[in-house]
Write a structure and sequence with these properties.
This protein is of the alpha/beta class. It has an eight-stranded mixed β-sheet with strand order 3-2-1-4-5-6-7-8, with helices on both faces. The chain is globular.
C-alpha cells in the first residue's frame, strides 16, 4: 500500500506536547492540526485560565499547567517554546515524565547556551526563523512557518533523532538548515539580535526628541515605520535573548560603532565620496537579500 508523504511523516509522532503557548508554540500547534488532525496535542502553560478563552487554544486536545504533567508520559514528541532563559529548566521539569523514546526540541533563538545546559542526546536544538513583532497565543498563525528557515543545531545527537526532528519541521512547511550551535549564534547575533537592538535604540533616541510628544506632527514616512517596526516586539522576550547571546552581540555592536564613528567623521570632514561608498555597498547588500 502506498501512503501519502504527509501521513508517513506525521506518523512519526502520535501525541505531541507543546510547553509554552505563545506565538510560535501556537503557530506550530495550528500547523500540526491543519496537516494531521488526528495528532493528539497537549498544551502546557503557566496559567490555563488565561489561554482558554483565546480562539487558537481550541486546537489543543488538552491544556494543563506545570503542576499537572502526568499526561506528558503519553507523548512521543515534545516542543519547548518558552522564552530562552527558562528552556533548560522547563526541560528538567518535564524530563521526569518523558518516555525513554521521546524526542525533544525547542524554538529558542540562542542555541549554544541551551544545548550546553540540557546536554541530552534526545534534545535536538532548533530555531524556526519565523515570527512577528506581535506576541502571544492570540497572534499565532500557521502561515508564518511556510517556507521559512528552521535551523537545527546538532550536538552529539543520534542521526535518527536529527532526521525525525528535521522531518517534523519540514512537515510544517519549513526549510531545514543544519548549523553548529556556535555558528547559529554568531549568525543570528548579526542578522536578528543586533538588528532588533538597533531598532529599539532608534526608537529610544527618537522618544527623547522634543517633537516626540506630538509624534513629530505626522512628519514621517514608511522609512521610520519599517525601521522601527520590530521595536514593537516584547521587550522582556528580547532582553532575555540579549543576555544569553551577549558576547556575539557585543562583537557586532563594536564593529557597528566603529563604522558609525567613521561615517560621522567623514561627514564632518566633507568626505562625501567615502560616505557614498558606504551607501553604495549598503544598497548592493540589501538588493541581494531580495
Amino acid at each position: 500500500m502506498i501512503y501519502s508523504l504527509s501521513i508517513w511523516r506525521i506518523s512519526l509522532f502520535k501525541r505531541v506536547c507543546i510547553a509554552g503557548l505563545g506565538l510560535i508554540g501556537g503557530s506550530v500547534a495550528l500547523a500540526i492540526k491543519e496537516k494531521s488532525p488526528d495528532v493528539f496535542l497537549v498544551g502546557i502553560t503557566r496559567e490555563v485560565s488565561k489561554v482558554k478563552d483565546i480562539p487558537q487554544s481550541k486546537v489543543f486536545d488538552k491544556i494543563v499547567d506545570y503542576s499537572d504533567l502526568e499526561i506528558v508520559k503519553e507523548c512521543d514528541f515534545c516542543l519547548i517554546s518558552t522564552v530562552v532563559s527558562v528552556i533548560p529548566d522547563t526541560y528538567r521539569l518535564l524530563r521526569r515524565y518523558f518516555r525513554d523514546d521521546v524526542i525533544i526540541t525547542d524554538v529558542g533563538s540562542v542555541k549554544s547556551w541551551i544545548v550546553s545546559e540540557i546536554n541530552d542526546e534526545r534534545f535536538v536544538g532548533a530555531h524556526p526563523m519565523a515570527g512577528s513583532e506581535k506576541s502571544g497565543l492570540s497572534f499565532s498563525d500557521s502561515k508564518i512557518l511556510n517556507n521559512s528557515i528552521c535551523v537545527i543545531t546538532p550536538k552529539n545527537n543520534p542521526k535518527e533523532y536529527l532526521d525525525k526532528v528535521s522531518e517534523f519541521w519540514k512537515f510544517l512547511g519549513m526549510k531545514v538548515l543544519y548549523l553548529s550551535p556556535e555558528e547559529h549564534d554568531k549568525i543570528v547575533a548579526q542578522t536578528s539580535h543586533f538588528i532588533h537592538l538597533v531598532s529599539y535604540v532608534i526608537s529610544f533616541v527618537l522618544s527623547s526628541s522634543e517633537f516626540s510628544k506630538d509624534c513629530f506632527f505626522g512628519v514621517f514616512g514608511k522609512g521610520l515605520l519599517d525601521t522601527t517596526r520590530i521595536s514593537k516586539s516584547d521587550p522582556y522576550l528580547w532582553i532575555d535573548i540579549f543576555q544569553k547571546n551577549k558576547d556575539n552581540i557585543l562583537s557586532i555592536i563594536d564593529y557597528f560603532v566603529e563604522k558609525l564613528i567613521k561615517t560621522k567623521n567623514d561627514i564632518l570632514q566633507n568626505k562625501w565620496d567615502d560616505v557614498l561608498e558606504v551607501l553604495l555597498k549598503a544598497k548592493d547588500f540589501r538588493d541581494k537579500l531580495g
